[in-house]
Amino acid sequence: MQESAVDEYVERFEELKSLMHSLNSLLPESYYISSFISGLKEDIKPVLKILKPVTLMIAFDQAKWQEESNNVLARKNKFMPRPATVVQMGTPIGNRQTNYMNDNQQKQKVLETMHEQR
Question: How far apart are the first and last CA of the chain?
Answer without folding.
Answer: 55
